[in-house]
Protein 1
Amino acid sequence: MKRLNQKRIKNLWAIALLAVALVTPTTWAKETDQLVLDGSTTLGPIAKAFAEYYMAKNPGVNVTVNESGSGNGAKSLINRTCDIASMSRFMKAKEFIAAVNKGVMPVAHVVAMDGLPVLVHPSNPVKALTVKQIRDIYSGKITNWNQVGGPNLAIVMISRDTNSGTYETFHKLIMTHKVDGKKIKEKISKKAEYVGSNGGIRTRVQSTPAAIGYAGLGFIDKTVKALKVNDIYPTRETVTSGKYPISRPLFMITNGYPKLGSHTHAFVTLYLSEKGQEIIEDIGFVPVTKY
């Protein structure tokens, strides 16, 4: 396959973002009463709540939500085994190219904003860490909580699996930094434990006094403690404003812009409605619209 240069890739992205204007009815898939979503576990609670609401409003329509990770969501869209890919990160250039080569034109819909709280056990007296301290913990340079003002306990690092968009975001915003103008990508220590969902992170942290983990904003509850990062606490306001250092958009990605009036279109634009915003807020994420 001929190698695509950066300019070509940018042009492809531009086409995807303008798909609403460029797509013609002949490019739309045949509408059915079945919708299949696959991808992010972070976006899972929103997708499932949307599905429940949509099926209640549209009897006879079946919406299936699978949570196999953002990377697998992209693969499912590319292979046309899902209608909507739920992703907690943007599609990578190689995923986009693979899609286009198979005749799939990904169009991203930003349905909510999210932050990645850094979570510890409620008994841990540490209240705040810097981005550098978090990076040093996960790279293995800091190994005991007493090195950051905590108890004399060896730190237990919990991470999302590498196929996760949450992992990708954490690696980009925490583990990647610059030294003398050069980008450095730190590796997560081999001692880190990997789990397959945000809920798994929370479960592991809530049962382990020495643990540290990271998950979506909607996974904060009384069983875990979220830390300030660079002295900023993760809230809807700090995530929306971009002040919280580990913030990201959440996407639902379709093959082309969905046909107006179709179930796919109605589903991926539900976030624009007052009810959609209410659902997103109730779950604990941040809407991109405000009524």
Protein 2
Amino acid sequence: MIPYQFGYHRPGSIAQAQALFSSLHDARFLAGGQTLIPVMKQRLANPAHLIDLSRLEELSLVAAEDGAIVIGAGVRHFQVEDSPDIRRTIQALARLAGTIGDPAVRHLGTLGGSLANNDPAADYPAAVLGLGATIVTTNNVIAADKFFSGMFQTALQEGEIIKTVSFPAPLRAGYAKFPNPASRYAIVGVFVAQTHAGVRVAVTGAAPCVFRTTEMERALSIRFEPDSLSDVRLSSDGLNSDLHASAEYRAHLVTVMAKRAVTAALDGQSSPIRE
């Protein structure tokens, strides 16, 4: 085993976390650790210091406010799945959280950690972009359409911390994904939301970064039914291609998963969630 040492810090507040980040050389924030720790084990990242945000009360908020659900960056996946407020207001978001990884991952991973990492196959980016959420950080208020900028890249600046995410309550919404059978990451996942401002369709897993498909949004704006997408064909140009699925197959899956997401949105109010 290759020896590897690093400093571990557990601040008591966001302000202390930022002060530590500014004073330490080569520091990284640690949320749930479900991405950073495995990467460190593979020696693909070697930070000199870890600043643990996982127990900050400031990041643990879940509240229904003015037609939206506000979720703290430190809220874990299982808490999103189990929250009565989230289930009642955005059932599709609770369902999405329940599909992430396995129970161990869901009890450690956090909303903020997932968004800050922006893995191309993560589930939460699809919900954030599909619902037109707002990301509140220590420095800025960032709209979902401006937050995700590329593979593992976001609008976050050095040392900036996600505090909360505000999800507007949709008229209806649904999420469907074709998961990798081992990791449960999305080979393709599609989040569809009918909102007061129109229809939004966000796709994860298919490309280097989560994206919206305006052609599907236009079709569903005319008629919010699965069959409205039957003639929509996504180009495979620029899509991911690997041992799990070719770009062409991913393009096909986007339409299939989008149809299932619309069906889930139409049936969502009466479908039970796992207890």
